[in-house]
Design brief:
- The complex is a heterodimer of chains A (250) and B (248).
- Chain A has 250 residues and is mainly alpha-helical.
- Chain A has one domain: MetI-like fold (Orthogonal Bundle), CATH 1.10.3720.
- Chain A is built from ten helices and no strands.
- Chain A is globular, with a radius of gyration of 22 Å.
- In chain A, helix 3 (54-84) packs parallel to helix 6 (119-143) and helix 9 packs antiparallel against helix 10 (216-249).
- Chain A has helices at residues 2-25, 37-50, 54-84, 86-97, 108-115, 119-143, 147-155, 160-197, 203-212, 216-249.
- Chain A starts with a helix and ends with a helix.
- Chain B is globular, with a radius of gyration of 22 Å.
- The two termini of chain B are 15 Å apart.
- The relative contact order of chain B is 0.12.
- The chains are: A mainly alpha (250), B mainly alpha (248).
- Chains A and B meet through helix 1, helix 4, helix 5, helix 8 and helix 9 of A and helix 1, helix 4, helix 5, helix 8 and helix 9 of B.
């Protein structure tokens, strides 16, 4: 069953790529709008080999990694702290629920003023974008630990930290990992989008620079790189996530 | 949810603390960011000018168009995909991947296809808003209790009747959650579009203020957008809560 789904999905993707390829090759989509996927891929490989954008790619991925790590670390800590204080939690809940309504990018300029130009404001905004999903996931994870678990731990006379390490953390892990997955994808969006709007380096900047200079080949090659790397990272995280979920259900 | 009892006093306290933090940053950073009072004052003055409302209307129009398309398309596609088990299973990971894609990277493509007008902004807003609505609707359809369908069959309802009378009311709470997310993401999409390439709209005002280093204008517009987004979010939340209360 899972096999068939896989093949259908693969078929759809391949079909779409081939369709675009055909439309581009026959000139239905003019080359000024979009270049053929095969040309994109060839140019992407060429770019990687040349190393012309290596600096930007490294800059972006470093920012993404730092932002994701900050979001996961601080989000986990904040989730623990808020979960320990039910009163505070009830006060924060409506704010957390409407957090994603706030157009965070509107504050990007403010961060530039605060942190200066560079990777710091980008990391700050990506962290802000990613942290709340981690906080929520941590709290849900802690909520969902069955009461029987802590009772059992008490029966076995585990210490406070032993309980946390051997019982609570493993029980909450699937939810925590879902939070990590969301945090990573939000960090990705935050970093690339901020670079796009106003920055001097990074993949987002390189794409917008290529767009402004009508360098379609570079632009599409970089876009393809982003799409492929996001898809790869997502499917890797999804795979682990699915494993965790399956284990939880067992 | 275990801790659903709201704590409005606490919420107000948290908001006050946040404003206090803002004030502290202002005092420490000096001219780097405007104080809360100055920002509110600046926004008030800005709201008195006609050009502000022109830009706001431009953004509002783009947002309205993209919301209509995103809601209609998202619900239709979500119902269609959710109706078929295989289709839903095939589509879900793809949709999740599309959702977590940094869609800004595709903005140049949107610009090349739709040109530099309102159409590209709307398209970009739809790209952001449609997918969450689709995902929520699809999952909503898949979670409908089979009993509902058996009852519908027992009553000899036609396919259209089932869709309209059974499926739609059953998924409405989910759809409303999706629309809430879609609303904020569409707004974000339209704003990013305007910030990147547009001559009108609040996003353009933001980008403009950023380039001119006009902190007060920037903070004022950002505050306005935040309040607008929060108001829309609160409205949709009340709506879904009320529906849930009567429906459940």
């Amino acid at each position: 069953m899972i096999r068939t789904e896989h093949y259908i999905r693969l078929g759809i993707v391949v079909g779409l790529v081939l369709l675009i390829e055909g439309l581009c090759r026959t000139g239905t989509i003019p080359a000024s709008v979009m270049i053929a996927p095969s040309a994109m891929a060839a140019h992407a490989i060429e770019i990687l080999r040349e190393g012309r954008f290596t600096h930007d790619i490294v800059a972006s991925f470093t920012s993404i990694a730092v932002a994701a790590a900050c979001a996961v670390g601080f989000g986990f800590a904040a989730g623990l702290a808020i979960h320990a204080m039910p009163g505070v939690r009830r006060a924060l809940e409506p704010l957390i629920a409407s957090y994603y309504a706030v157009p965070t990018f509107a504050f990007y300029p403010v961060f530039i003023v605060l942190f200066g130009v560079g990777s710091l404001p980008i990391i700050a905004i990506a962290t802000l974008l990613a942290i709340v999903s981690m906080i929520t996931a941590t709290m849900t994870g802690l909520d969902r630990i069955p009461h029987a678990f802590s009772k059992t731990a008490r029966v076995m006379r585990l210490g406070r930290w032993q309980t946390v390490w051997h019982v609570k953390l493993p029980a909450a892990l699937p939810h925590l990992f879902s939070g990590v997955r969301l945090a990573v994808s939000h960090a990705f969006i935050g970093v690339i989008a901020s670079e796009f709007i106003l920055s001097g380096s990074g993949i987002g900047y390189a794409i917008s620079y290529a767009y402004n200079n009508f360098e379609n080949a570079d632009m599409y090659a970089l876009m393809l790189l982003v799409l492929v790397s996001v898809t790869l990272i997502n499917s890797a995280l999804n795979h682990v996530d699915a494993r965790f979920q399956a284990r939880r259900r067992r | 949810m275990e801790t659903k009892k709201p704590n409005p006093l606490g919420t107000i306290a948290v908001v006050l603390v946040l404003i206090g933090l803002w004030q502290t940053v202002h005092l420490l950073g000096g001219a780097a960011i405007g104080s809360p009072v100055a920002t509110v004052h600046g926004l008030w003055q800005m709201m008195g000018t006609a050009s502000f409302w022109e830009d706001a209307a431009e953004t509002g129009r783009a947002l309205a168009y993209s919301l209509v398309i995103a809601v209609a398309g998202g619900i239709a596609l979500g119902l269609g995909l959710g109706a078929n088990r295989l289709a839903a299973k095939v589509a879900e990971p793809m949709m999740m991947n599309l959702y977590s894609l940094p869609k800004v990277t595709l903005y140049p493509l949107v610009l090349l296809v739709f040109g530099l007008g309102i159409a590209s902004k709307v398209a970009f807003g739809v790209m952001h808003g449609l997918i969450p609505i689709l995902i929520f609707t699809m999952n909503g359809v898949r979670q409908i209790k089979p009993v509902y369908f058996r009852a519908a069959h027992a009553m000899h309802l036609s396919r259209n009747q089932i869709a309209l009378r059974v499926v739609l009311p059953a998924v409405l709470p989910e759809v409303l959650s999706g629309v809430r997310l879609g609303f904020s993401l569409s707004l974000l999409g339209v704003l990013i579009g305007e910030m990147f390439a547009s001559q009108k709209g609040l996003g353009h005002q933001l980008a403009n203020a950023m380039n001119l280093g006009n902190i007060d204008a920037l903070m004022a517009v950002a505050l306005f957008l935040m309040l607008f987004a929060l108001a829309g979010n609160a409205l949709l939340m009340t709506l879904s809560r009320r529906y849930r209360a009567t429906g459940a």
